[in-house]
Design a protein that fits this description.
With 445 residues, the chain is of the alpha/beta class. The chain contains 15 helices and 21 strands.
Length: 445
């Protein structure tokens, strides 16, 4: 049978979709990238932001229309929104056959079989607390190749940020044994993967039977063939001294970090339940820069959270100026049903949220341009990921996270360059990437 998977939301959901694809492939499914011709249509939904939830539900409705002409279709609504809404999804989109929370992906093939046989709707939500084996059963088993890969080290979240639904839909944090993580990374490296990104909602809270996140990074640093390690998403409250110092001495740990701050006002951070102050965040940034002076730090900001005054917002702008973020994912606050913050009024008018977002973008764009301009003339170590934006070009990512396009060096082809590390001098800035030129003679590693 063929299955089509449509993913909404964050990197973690993208990786979950890879795991769903892996599980289905092991059961004989062919994964296709178009719904036409597929018998099983899967929507991997997100509920963190209102927009993602609306998109997922309207995609389910759109795919559901196909059932009018085909009675062999099975529609699966999976992911965080499935976990949160449960059977209510059937009322919203009656064409959905199976509602599946993230802790039940391992049972997906048998559940699809069941709904197809019984021709009835079914939902499986709830957490696998106390049954860590379920977590491991989702570990990708198929041969994974390519230059980079995601590796899950934990799941769930035990924080209580007042605007966030994740702890309610993903459950409390649970960690994978460090030996299993190392084994998976070793196997990836043996298959040619050179860069891994460790995934978890509060990834740096990792602590498996006394092995901290910094300990895990130190073990991965010794994996033969592995060149680079990144991780997402860390929480500022778990940026320990050991972890910060790791940036200074672990060769594989890349000099970039996405560290969500959300607001530059300690008053707002307290209201958001973030468990750190703006001052603490500033200290973390300072220590990261002393540990690794060339580190690029990006962040997430919410504007217009309930109760945010102009003064709070100005403190956020001040933090952005001082921290010199290399990128910011910014969002206008919108209330998510089921989150603690719904007890407060969403009291910043929409027009004001838009104004603050635009003001924030003006500051960010200027800083990002300044930081990028400093890279011109520098030599970056680029891991080639594929063909570039123009014919005859390659594209890849530098250790600091920047995307670099450059002409295929003399004597090389796309095939021979793929997965290699090449020194590239940055020659100019493009809107969302850098353009460079390989240092000759090429030293491809
Ligand atoms: S740390 Fe906060 S924002 Fe992040 S997933 Fe947990 S509750 Fe949500």
């Amino acid at each position: 049978m063929k299955a089509y998977i449509k993913t909404f939301g964050c990197q973690m959901n993208v990786h979950d979709s890879e795991r769903i694809a892996d599980i289905l492939s092991r059961h004989g499914y062919e994964i296709t990238d178009a719904p036409r011709g597929a018998e099983v249509l899967i929507i991997n939904s997100c509920t963190v932001r209102e927009k993602a939830w609306h998109k997922a539900i309207s995609e389910a409705g759109r795919l559901g229309v196909r059932k009018r002409d085909r009675d062999d279709l099975t529609i699966v609504f999976a992911g965080c929104a499935a976990q949160q809404e449960g059977d209510k999804v059937f009322k919203l989109i009656p064409a959905v056959d199976l509602v599946l929370g993230p802790d039940h992906y391992g049972q997906l093939p048998s559940l699809i079989e069941r709904v197809r046989e019984c021709k009835s709707q079914l939902s499986r939500v709830g957490f696998d607390e106390g049954r860590p084996g379920d977590f491991l059963s989702l570990e990708p088993q198929g041969k994974r190749t390519g230059t980079s890969a995601f590796v899950t080290v934990m799941k769930g979240c035990s924080e209580r940020c007042t605007y966030c639904i994740v702890p309610f839909v993903r459950g409390p944090m649970r960690f994978r044994p460090d030996d299993d993580v190392v084994r998976e990374v070793e196997s990836l490296a043996q298959n040619g993967v050179r860069e891994v990104t460790l995934l978890g909602q509060t990834v740096n809270a990792y602590n498996y039977e006394g092995a901290s996140f910094a300990d895990l990074l130190a073990r991965l640093d010794r994996v033969p063939g592995l060149e680079r390690v990144r991780f997402t998403s860390p929480h500022p409250g778990y940026m320990t001294k050991e972890l910060i110092e790791s940036f200074g001495h672990l060769e594989t740990l890349c000099e970039s970090i996405h560290l969500p701050v959300q607001s530059g006002s300690s008053r707002m951070l307290r209201r958001m339940g973030r468990r750190y102050t703006a001052e603490h965040f500033r200290e973390v940034v300072e220590k990261l820069r002393s540990s690794r002076p060339d580190i690029l730090i990006s962040t997430d900001i919410i504007v217009g959270f309930s109760g945010e005054t102009q003064e709070d917002f100005e403190q956020t702008l001040g933090l952005i100026e001082d921290a010199r973020f290399s990128g910011v994912f910014s969002f206008k606050y919108s209330q998510r049903p089921g989150t603690p913050a719904t007890k407060w009024r969403d009291d910043v008018p929409e027009e004001e949220k838009k104004r603050r977002l635009a003001a924030l973008h003006t500051v960010i764009d200027r800083i990002v341009d300044e930081l990028r301009a400093e890279l011109v003339g520098k030599v970056l170590d680029v891991l080639v990921e594929g063909p570039g934006r123009n014919p005859g070009q390659l594209t890849g990512r530098a250790r600091n996270g920047q995307i670099v396009n450059f002409p295929v060096p003399p004597g090389m082809t796309l095939g021979s360059a793929l997965g290699k590390l090449i020194d590239v001098e940055v020659v100019q800035l493009l809107p969302h990437s850098l353009e460079g030129s390989a240092i000759l003679p090429v030293r491809a590693r």
